[in-house]
Design a protein that fits this description.
- The complex is a heterodimer.
- Chain A has 22 helices and 20 strands.
- Chain A is of the alpha/beta class.
- Chain A folds into three domains: 166 residues, Thiamin diphosphate (ThDP)-binding fold, Pyr/PP domains (Rossmann fold, 3-Layer(aba) Sandwich); 162 residues, Rossmann fold (3-Layer(aba) Sandwich); 169 residues, Thiamin diphosphate (ThDP)-binding fold, Pyr/PP domains (Rossmann fold, 3-Layer(aba) Sandwich).
- In chain A, strands 3-2-4-5-7-6 form a six-stranded parallel β-sheet, sandwiched between helices. Chain A has a six-stranded parallel β-sheet with strand order 11-10-9-12-13-14, sandwiched between helices. In chain A, strands 16-15-17-18-20-19 form a six-stranded parallel β-sheet, with helices on both faces.
- In chain A, β6, α6 and β7 form a beta-alpha-beta unit.
- The longest helix of chain A is centred in the first third of the chain and has 15 residues.
- Chain A is globular, with a radius of gyration of 24 Å.
- Chain B is α+β, with helices and mostly antiparallel strands.
- Chain B folds into two domains: 79 residues, ACT domain (Alpha-Beta Plaits), CATH 3.30.70; 72 residues, ACT-like. Chain A, domain 2 (Alpha-Beta Plaits, 2-Layer Sandwich).
- In chain B, 26% of the residues lie in helices and 43% in strands.
- Chain B has four helices and ten strands.
- In chain B, strands 2-3-1-4-10 form a five-stranded antiparallel β-sheet, with helices on one face. In chain B, strands 5, 6, 7, 8 and 9 form a five-stranded antiparallel β-sheet that branches.
- In chain B, a hairpin with a 3-residue loop joins β6 and β7.
- The chains are: A alpha/beta, B alpha+beta.
- The interface between A and B is medium-sized, with 17 and 19 residues.
Chain lengths: 557, 167
């Protein structure tokens, strides 16, 4: 005889789970009791939201399914933002929640919330387990659904009596059988050939690569295709790292805060090869003027993404890695686009991203120094806002899964807990959380967790005493009326010290490199409080609803 | 914008209906009618939904519906050779001696059945497509419709006709 709690823990281990981020509470007591002498590692966070983000950060950095655990009611509700974040960026996590006993379901019992109802629109799937007998099958299905096809979060809600009831061991199904779930991995042969024909005939092709390339580990295939066909590559925020930043064909990020040359290339291209992307509004600007002269090829594992925002000429439903490999096999000759490449090179020379050099402490400079020090061998996590965009623009990413950011949902407070998770996936490299003073205060309680477990996350706060991105919009589009975006100074080093974390306040450019080195050399967590130029803007910028080649803050063309 | 009749084969499990309707409500679609019941396959149900939307919007919802784990198959019956029916019950004021005969005549024209008679009212049962039921209700309004209830459209393709969509 085994209790549901024991079956749950064994099921998690069977799925290869090594670490859980969680927070205990009433109805998960039986599960926590089982964890007490289990070999599963559990990290006690300081707020359930952080558990979900940490599981997400772990999943993004490792490519495996992350796991978080919370109690019913408030615990489960606190996971919601983290689950929604994972959902928007297609991150495989399994969120386990306790629930009130089955006989009390729907009674407004203490700490009851209908978490399967609440998370329905932000999960790939969710379960309310009503019988202990179903538990091992449900956990198996949850991991399978989370990690296959287009990945995403799956929530499993477990009433207390389901955890406590003892049953005879039920055999675990060998394979998951879900009639309504059959993701397509291989692309249609004819469509792949059609795509190749279109690319070979193109004069000005561009690859537009996104998070799908990272998710399916298709970076090598992407680089081979680009190199052999001589096609420049621009990546989305989520795709950064799928091609090294200093690769001659790399155009950097496109879209609202993309490089001018990436946006020019999109506007002038005749074939747009979209791979694992979703034509998000932050990328396309005004959709009618996005790649207006191009025939579009689109590879995505999710058929619902194809043709959603922009009409596509050659749709290919399939896994990015599988489709690109098939494409490489079908490819008969190499491609050359010398005059197009030359034109792009000219744009690159005349429209570079700029970093002001006037002796003041500029955030762009800090990111560039960080990039120089770490050489791409680190995991960089960001919060949301200006800090995120400056990092995306100025850090030189060289490997997939080394850039972790909340792209779709844009969740402030994501960075620190996600960085904790990322550390457990990549203990071999430094992990930085690039933060703003606004974002860091949304989950600053996690200083407690990184101190508790000595998690060596380095928190680099670009402290401008503003909610910088909102302030930037107010400056540009609301006549500098800074409505509720200013925040008084916070001494983050003192806060860090109170938790037993070391930190340095940095106020001038020459202190940046020594401070970064001190952070990296420190064995444990470290906080860097950079007092940056207060009203620095993220440029270039495409105003909302404009065409992406109509950028402000760029170079005259 | 035109009405689309979607036929959705789902696992008969708790919560499936809210998963399905949630995809409509988050896009601001109003569901015109909805009918659910068990179907030819054990453990499955079939949902027929009528929504008004433009083709691209409806196509997007269908793709999203297909992604739901508990959904086996989604078909848009619109534009295909199909049979669509709805059943309605109409309680209409019909005092003895007044317009009773007239109402019964109308019922006959519409092939509606009278399923309940009381001194003050009649209940008519009518089966047909949406337009037919709308027309009957409109005609009966002058006599005083006390209550009007309808099942929502169910639809089925005629033999050997292809359906668009799928999974």
């Amino acid at each position: 005889m085994k209790t549901g709690a024991k079956i749950l823990v064994e099921s998690l281990q069977r799925e290869g789970t090594e670490i859980i981020f969680g927070y205990p509470g009433g109805v998960v007591l039986p599960i926590y009791d089982e964890l007490y002498d289990s070999s599963l590692r559990h990290i006690l966070v300081r707020h359930e939201q952080a558990a979900a983000h940490a599981a997400d950060g772990y999943a993004r950095a490792s490519g495996r399914v992350g796991v978080c655990l919370a109690t019913s009611g408030p615990g489960a509700c606190n996971l919601v933002t983290g689950i929604a974040t994972a959902y928007m960026d297609s991150v495989p996590i399994v969120a386990l929640t306790g629930q009130v006993p089955t006989n009390l379901l729907g009674n407004d019992a203490f700490q009851e919330s209908d978490i399967t109802g609440i998370t329905m629109p932000v999960t790939k799937h969710n379960y309310l387990v009503k019988r202990t007998e179903d538990l091992s099958r449900v956990v198996k299905e949850a991991f399978y659904i989370a990690g296959t096809g287009r990945p995403g979060p799956v929530l499993v809600d477990i009433p207390k009596d389901v955890s406590t009831t003892s049953i005879k061991d039920v055999p675990v199904p060998e394979k998951v059988q879900l009639r309504g779930y059959n993701p397509t991995y291989s692309g249609h042969k004819r469509q792949i050939e059609k795509a190749l024909q279109l690319i070979m005939a193109a004069e000005r092709p561009v690859i537009y690569a996104g998070g799908g390339v990272i998710l399916s580990n298709a970076s090598a295939e992407l680089i081979r295709i680009a190199t052999e066909l001589g096609i420049p590559v621009t990546t989305t925020l989520m795709g950064l790292g799928c091609i090294p930043c200093d690769h001659p064909l790399n155009l950097g990020m496109l879209g609202m805060h993309g490089t001018e040359y990436a946006n020019f290339a999109i506007t002038e291209c005749d074939v747009l090869f979209a791979i694992g992307v979703r034509f998000d509004d932050r990328v396309t600007g005004k959709t009618e003027t996005f790649a207006p002269h191009a025939k579009i090829i689109h590879i995505d594992i999710d058929p619902a993404e194809i043709g959603k925002n922009k009409r596509v000429d050659v749709p290919i439903v399939g896994d990015t890695k599988t489709v690109l490999s098939d494409m490489l096999t079908c490819m008969k000759k190499k491609g050359v686009h010398d005059s197009w490449i030359k034109k792009i090179k000219h744009w690159k020379q005349h429209h570079p991203l700029v970093c002001p050099d006037d002796g003041c402490l500029h955030p762009q400079y800090i990111i560039r120094q960080m990039s120089e020090l770490l050489k791409g061998d680190a995991v960089i996590v960001s919060e949301v806002g200006q800090n995120q965009m400056w990092t995306a623009q100025h850090f030189c990413f060289r490997h997939p899964r080394t850039w972790i950011t909340s792209g779709g949902l844009g969740t402030m407070g994501y960075g620190l807990p996600a960085a904790m998770g990322a550390h457990f996936a990549r203990p071999d490299v430094p992990v930085f959380d690039v933060a703003g003073d606004g974002s860091i205060q949304m989950n600053i309680q996690e200083f407690g967790t990184i101190a508790h477990y000595n998690i060596p996350v380095k928190v680099a706060i670009l402290n401008n005493r503003y909610l910088g991105m909102v302030r930037q919009w107010q400056e540009l589009f609301y006549d500098r009326r800074y409505s509720y975006t200013e925040m008084p100074a916070v001494e983050f080093v003192k806060i860090a010290n109170a938790y037993g974390i070391e930190g340095i306040k940095v106020e001038s450019p020459d202190e940046v490199m020594p401070a970064l080195k001190a952070a990296v050399e420190c064995d444990g967590p470290f906080v860097l409080d950079f007092r940056v130029e207060r009203e620095e803007n993220v440029f270039p910028m495409v105003p909302a609803g404009a065409a992406i080649n109509e950028m402000i803050g760029g170079h005259p063309r | 914008m035109k009405p689309h009749t979607l036929s959705i084969l789902v696992e008969n499990k708790a919560g499936v209906l809210s998963r399905v309707t949630g995809l409509f409500s988050r896009r601001g679609f109003n569901i015109e009618s909805l009918a659910v019941g068990p179907c030819e396959e054990p453990g499955m149900s079939r949902i027929t939904i009528v929504v008004i939307g433009d083709d691209a919007q409806v196509e997007q919802v269908m793709k999203q519906l297909n992604k739901l784990i508990d959904i086996i198959k989604v078909s848009d019956l619109t534009g295909n050779e199909r049979v669509e029916r709805e059943l309605a019950l109409i309680k209409v004021t019909a005092e003895v001696g007044s317009s009773r005969a007239e109402i019964m005549q109308i019922a006959e024209i519409f092939r509606a059945q009278i399923v309940d008679v009381s001194p003050k009212s009649l209940i008519l049962q009518v089966i047909g497509n949406t337009q037919k039921i709308d027309a009957l209700e409109k005609l009966l309004r002058q006599y005083g419709v006390k209550e009007f209830v309808r099942t929502g459209t169910v639809g089925i393709l005629r033999a050997s006709k292809n359906v668009t969509g799928g999974k």
